[in-house]
Amino acid sequence: MFGLTRYQWLVLFAAWLGWGFDVFDGLLFNFVAPLCVPSLLGIDAAAPSAKPQILFWTASLSSLLLLGWAAGGILFGKLTDRIGRTRTLLVTMLTYALSTAACAFAPNIWVLALFRLGASLGIGGEWAAGASLVAESLPPKKRVVGGALLYTSAPMGLFLATYVNDLFTRKLDVIASNPHTSWRAVFLTGLVPAIFAFLIRLKVKEPEHWAAAERTPKIAELFTPELRRHTLGGIAMAVIALITWWSCSVFIPVIANFLANDMHANPADLPRLKTQFQTLGSTMFNLGGLVGTLLTVPIALRFGRRPMFAVYYALSAAAIMFTFSPGLAPHARLYSMGLIGLTVFGVFGSFTFYLPELFPMRLRGTGSGFCYNIGRVVTAAFPFVMGVIMRTGVSPIEIIRWVAAVPVLGVIFVAVGLAEETRDKALLEDV
User: Fold this and answer.
1) Cβ within 8 Å of residue 39, ≥6 positions away
2) CA 413 to CA 108: how far, in whole Å?
3) Residues 22-57 as b or e (16 or more Cβ within 10 Å = b)
4) Which domains does the chain have, with CATH numbers?
5) CA-CA distance, 265 to 272, in Å (whole number)?
6) 340, 140 contact by CB (below 8 A)
């Protein structure tokens, strides 16, 4: 299938699992925040005063996660070029799996933040290792397809996180009946990737090109005259995509709770209604993301990378404006999260093949990780600021509507030539 050998499929599957579990572990907190934050703070989740606290800590820990992702991405990106792709993949998966599971034993919010920071380092580092491994192991003509297939694991990771949260906080009455312990069970499932990490290390070897390459990566080399434009363009595209994605996705549970409260349901039914709304909004976002990720392949191959970014960013702005427009019914708003997934989420299918195309072999992990994770540093401020604004009582729907301006800026970046066109160009193996 797709002209790949069994071993190339194994490599792709290994990286697919690494990134899928990366997303799964990374976003578990966003699902359980309405339960774990009041539990760790010792406050009543149903009290009116609890809502601002939950919003504030959800936003703050999401920003902390992004900063940790960025630090881990740059650190492990360099390690990827030094010790190898598969070794780094193993280390990063173990780091985020063990740290996420440790969150289940957090006695207070500060220890939870510490464990989340540890998980974020591994989560941030996995991306560069997996993307480089796929780019160097697949035939040149299959790298775009391989890169997009790799990113389909992201919506699958979100599906898994949605299912696990729904299972332990709503369906399994033995666990779900106690909101002080159900969220701990959710965090414990983050340990699963550790099992697969060892299996991956036994079966996947380093790409032959990497084994023969000179390994002295330096971040300063990304800003030499030959690579400066590539680096700045990669950062610009990543910043736009990451700000938009995080500003929308982090607050899906918050939006779901906000819409459920507007339904004026029986107080006894409200917790389950909130979980149902969270599941619906997340499912639509994930489904749209899965389709959008796959669509990057024909668009990138037929029209090129720059037109692809322009199309996705323009449609992202339109999807956000529609989904968060005034007067839309709650269920219609949740279903239209699929449009945001299609565009805001879908564009990420391109980064796993686009960023590796920008850099030579010995700088591929360093360059890809640097561009992607500088984007995370910039993005880190946005969930926090949005959380602070929501804490004042402003509707999250009203705030997120303004996020549409970010992808519009991305269209402008493409129009002025900031993004490098890499279609029909071979990987910079010999640079």
Assistant:
1) 45, 179, 180, 183
2) 43
3) bbbbbbbbbbbbbbbbbbbeeeebeeeebbebbbbb
4) 6-415 (1.20.1250.20)
5) 10
6) no
Distance between CA atoms of residues 48 and 278, nearest Å: 20
Query: How far apart, in whole angstroms, are the C-alpha atoms of residue 119 and residue 115?
Result: 6
> E strand or H helix at 99, and its extent?
helix 85-102
Residue by residue, pLDDT tens for the chain (431 residues) are 566 788 888 888 888 887 788 888 887 887 888 888 889 988 887 777 777 788 788 888 888 888 887 888 778 777 777 777 777 878 888 888 899 999 999 999 999 999 999 988 888 777 667 777 777 777 777 777 777 787 788 788 888 888 888 888 877 777 877 878 888 999 999 888 777 776 766 777 766 655 545 556 678 888 888 889 999 999 999 999 999 998 888 778 778 877 887 777 677 677 778 778 888 888 899 899 989 988 998 998 889 999 999 999 999 999 999 999 988 888 899 999 999 999 999 998 888 888 888 888 778 777 887 888 788 788 888 877 877 777 777 777 888 899 999 999 999 999 998 888 887 765 555 44
Beta carbons of 414 and 309 less than 8 angstroms apart: yes
DSSP string for 14-45: HHHHHHHHHHHHHHHHHHHHHHHHHHHHT--T
β-partners of residue 360 are: 428
> What gap in Å lies between CA 267 and CA 170, rounded to an integer?
16
DSSP-derived 3-state class of residue 328: coil
What is d(CA 282, CA 286) in angstroms, rounded to the nearest whole number? Answer: 6
User: Measured between alpha carbons, how far apart are the two ends of the chain, in Å?
Assistant: 32
Residue 341: φ, ψ to 5°: -60, -45
User: Would you call 267 helix, strand, or coil by DSSP?
Assistant: coil
Side chain identity, residue 370: F
Closest CA to 109 of 164, 39, 62, 49: 39
List the beta bridge partners of residue 428.
360
Residues 6+ away with beta carbon under 8 Å from 375: 70, 235, 238, 239, 241, 242, 243
* Burial class, 19, CB count within 10 angstroms (exposed 0-12 / middle 13-18 / buried 19+): buried
**Concatenated DSSP letters for 197-237?**
HHHHHHH----HHHHTS-----GGGGGSTTTHHHHHHHHHH
